[in-house]
Sequence to fold (885 residues):
Amino acid sequence: MTKPLLAIRDLSIDYAGHIQAVRKASLDVRLGEAVGLVGESGSGKSTLASAITGLLPESARILSGDISFNGKIITGSDQAALRGDEIAMVFQDPMTAFNPVLTIGDQLVDFQNRLRGSAAEKSERAIAMLARVGIPDPASRARYYPHELSGGMRQRAAIAAALLVSPSLLIADEPTTALDVTMEAQIIHLFRELRRDYGGGILIVTHHLGVVAELCDRVCVMYQGEMVEEGAVDDIFHNPRHPYTRALLACDPARLHERTDYLPVITDAERATFRGASTR
Amino acid sequence: MTPILEAEGLAVNFRAPGGFLGLGHDRLAILEDVSLAIEPGETLGLVGESGSGKTTLARALLGLVPRAGGTIRFEGKAIEAVGTHGFRHLRRKTAMMFQDPVGSLSPRLAIGSAITEPFVIHGALMRSRREAAEELLALVGLPKDFVNRYPHELSGGQARRAGVARALALRPALVIADEPTAGLDVSIQGEILNLMTRLKAELALSYIIVTHNLAMIRHVSDRIAIMYLGRIVEEGPTAEIFAAARHPYTASLIASEPIPDPRRRRQSLAITGEVPSILNRPKGCEFHTRCLFAQERCRSQAPTLTPLASGRSVRCHYPLN
Amino acid sequence: MPSVAHDILKRVTRDPLGLLGLVLVVIVLGAAIFADVVAPYDPAKIDVLHKLQGPSAAHWLGTDQLGRDTLSRVIYGARVAMGIAVFSIGIGAFIGLILGILAGYGPRWLDAVLIFFFDSLSAIPLILFALTVIVILGPGTSTLIFVIAMISIPVYGRLVRAQTLSLRRSEFILAEQSMGAGLARIIGIHLLPNVLGPLVILVSMDIPTVVALEAALSYLGLGVKPPTPSWGTILNDGYVSLRTNPALVIAAGIPLVIATLGFTFLGEALRDALDPKLKGRRSS
Fold:
């Protein structure tokens, strides 16, 4: 088994000493692999993703465990050096990824500040990447301001921005949640196309099971801070072992073949069985 | 049976500000020629993406936005201008659940007061306000002591339940729910929808559910109407439409939804491009710019909503199947 | 309602600076209200024999150039300062509140007219405006109140208007409309409490500004008429005898600082206390 690009071992994070957001979570991402990190609100998945890039809020503390990137432990060190270079992120709200007062083109050039090349070369690379992510007429779109692009275009531009620096790890946090169904399908399709050329590792953090099924090779399921199940995407969807995974899959209305009047829910009694039921 | 609510040729415009003292305006059509009817005891799904006008339609049906044309009939009687007796009757017998569950509750009003607002507004309070509030909370499965909580102290799911409670205060005949599951975890969505379904049977309600979530609406609605750029493009019984959609847009919507099964990955894109801006509506059939089956006629002539068999209708020159 | 006030009070006093501010404000207000009881002498009582004395047992803060007891004048000065501040800001905020709501919630043409009115009023330089009014109405307390009220109307009006405009489109207002709530109910119960918060905070922060403004104008001789004691006039009187008897300047300066600090701290604590979103933090 090749060494993982990203390895998280028994990571525990809490907020201001009160709420334990992540409990002894472990996660691997290898080069060329797409891993889905699935969970509902309060599962800790976003906290975990923020920890990788060193973007945890002030009140959060890493209690124990390690994050290694390319074999080197990066927890506690200044992860800013890796951000925007080796590790790139795509966020849920493409509007917040961009500075509203600068054009998309200017920002994409600015994001390349650690790369070599003249401004003209960087501008060309930016336009080429905008074309690569499916933005029509990229040369003139590069002169648009973020608010002048539609939501779908902005998300494509955000993906372009992330890929420009050729990161080894791309983290996408709810990349399609804010988009309409038809645009979501297009972005999923885009990710799949890009994977053919992009050799790095991808971590997709989402609560949307459909996105995970479409894009990921492996899946990690989190519940209330714990990593409850982990495995190949087919195993998770067709042979789930942890009661939470099974319950989560059962609740998704898209998985119900027959129409039902009353949708399945997770009862409190069921929830009581989730914690501590380990499959690892 | 008389439909609970009926709309015919509904049109809503948006006035973009401009001119001297903000008095001039450009008129943009948000809703065009919308006709639909909801029978008692029925759940109608209004399905569409952003820009489809579905939320505006929901609000227009309750007279919350002024209409530029068309008629609305509630329980058979035409609803005219704001402030008329008919209008006040409409307010009593209909209710709306809003998309932002916390934001639709007055921030400085305790939940107990918020959910009993309809009683006070219509002067219908039979017992103490607190008793009425507790009864409503029990109806939606919230604990009694939530009477004193404030909106920002509630989780998304709890705030939604409070919204249901408020909507049902005066036992309306029709409830319009705008994205009732938006922002909720999948495991909680079922709870809210099941609550609504149970109360529908108990209180003999009719629902209009506005949503873009196809997977959900397939289960909870009897009929659906698909909207595109402010027009209804297809309408009919839910099961039939999902089994065999007639309008290309409906078909591409259904085909676009990601399936939570890695063995059934979508190989190709059902639809490309984006919804055109209402500032720049395409000529002819407004969907022709993205339609895989568009022909010459579609580019120049706008289709009308044509009734088909079994209560379906479609707005297309060349319906599928 | 009483429980809301009690709740706010608790949250203000939990903050050490808020508590300090509250204490200082209570002192100043207490001096203003109970001046008759607290002040040892009649502030207008002239006693030229004992003029310009330093602090002593009989006169804690000494006397001014006409032999009047400085301490009594300072205490009554609080009444003048508070009175002017309360009335002028009160009138300005009240009118600003009404006009702001009209502008924000009413028809567009009304909004345009009121904005024009606000802009015109704030375009006039303060001193010029003050001087003009003084020339027309003559100097004195009521003139001062009028001037300050006028210039504060656009400030409060704009704030209330902005709040109203943003709230007008919020879902909870739409929800109330969908339930059939009338205009009076929407404005009175749902709009007003959410607009008052920022207004109250601005008002409390403006009080020290107005107090300082009154002192400045009185110092320039454009404010209250003698013998009415104002911290500004005391400062003015004291300036002349600064070298020989600094007690006057200090005596007028310190209450100004106390009032300013007190209202500023209180205002900041109020801003935090009135934010409903911060309420839940401790309980959840």
In short: The beta strands of chain A are 6-15, 19-29, 34-38, 60-69, 72-73, 87-90, 169-173, 201-206, 218-223, 226-232. The two ends of chain A are 18 Å apart (CA to CA). Residues 100 and 146 of chain A are 6 Å apart (CA to CA).
